[in-house]
Amino acid sequence: MKAISTNSLLFILLLLQHSFAQDSTHIDFLVPKTRTKRTDQISTPQFVETRVITFNLRYDNYNDGENAWDKRKVELLHCIQNENCDLYCFQEALISQVNFLKDSLGNDFAYYGIGRDDGKTGGEYSPIFYNTHRYTLMNAGTYWLSPRRDTVSRGWDAACNRIVTVIYLYDRKVDRYLTVFNTHFDHIGVVARKHSAEIILDLLDQKPWIESSQTILCGDFNAEESDESIQLLKERLQLAKACDGIAKGTFNAFDTAQTPTKRIDFIFYYNFSKAGIKTIERRRSNGLWLSDHLAVEGILLEEE
């Protein structure tokens, strides 16, 4: 049997933290300990956690029948609230869905995002919700994934308008700045996906704060890891890997009879000490999926 690496073991244990949050006997196992030479005392590295979920909600489509938004939204909400994350990055959210999440998450969270079809409320959002007790919003913007990124537009061979949402936060917990990107690449346009990745990389270069801030990129990339667009992003950003080493599929197409195998939802990061992800496979009480994608949760660590 192949031995589990130290890093893999660390993140497996990290993912158990939520379940054992009230049991202090488990906390000591979250990070490795070392003995100091001078005092022979046990030294435990201290980490600050940032928890983020990326989740394609499936747009509010009445024709989805038993999978329609109104029939699954409450259980979906309970699922994400149960994870106690600091950040939520959603895709395919129409204004009605954004308003439901805003009202349900309450004053603990604020969001930034606009509709991709008119720059206001029309069409799908890729909103970012952030915990107001931890973060202060410093700046925000939306860019279209097209040659005319600053205005409503469609790029190359894309079937739809596509956007990337960017927010710049001050993290009061660690006295640092955090840039969060949330995007949804096109499902048809191969050329568009490649250029979309290039636009995000260009935005990283254009923003003077990036080198000194921490960075998270979330999204539904409509591409598997081998795709050129994902490989381009990996040249600049680190791709968060599954904590247990098992890369599970994230697109289920509402098919309850098959195990998802297509992994197209990712979390990238920069300037964090460590990171790991888990795929949330929770279903509704009737056995149906919460969405046609599975949520992916990232745990990012910064050493104090």
Write the layout of secondary structure elements.
Layout: H1 6-15, E1 34-35, E2 42-43, E3 47-56, H2 69-82, E4 87-91, H3 95-105, E5 109-112, E6 128-131, E7 135-144, E8 163-171, E9 176-184, H4 190-206, E10 214-220, H5 228-234, E11 238-239, E12 265-270, E13 274-280, E14 295-303
Parallel strand pairs: 3-4, 9-10
Antiparallel strand pairs: 1-2, 3-14, 4-6, 5-6, 7-8, 8-9, 10-12, 11-12, 13-14
Short structural description:
It contains 5 helices and 14 strands. With 304 residues, the protein is an alpha+beta fold. The strands form 3 sheets. Strands 5-6-4-3-14-13 form a 6-stranded mixed sheet, with helices on one face. Strands 7-8-9-10-12-11 form a 6-stranded mixed sheet, with no helix packed on it.
Tell me what you see in this structure.
- There is one protein chain.
- This protein is 19% helix and 28% strand.
- Helix 4 (190-206) packs parallel to helix 5 (228-234).
- It is built from 5 helices and 14 strands.
- The strands form 3 sheets. It has a 6-stranded mixed beta sheet, covered by helices on one side. It has a 6-stranded mixed beta sheet with strand order 7-8-9-10-12-11, with no helix packed on it. The protein has a two-stranded antiparallel sheet with strand order 1-2.
- Residues 1-6 and 8-39 have low confidence and may be disordered.
- The chain is globular.
- The chain is an alpha+beta fold and 304 residues long.
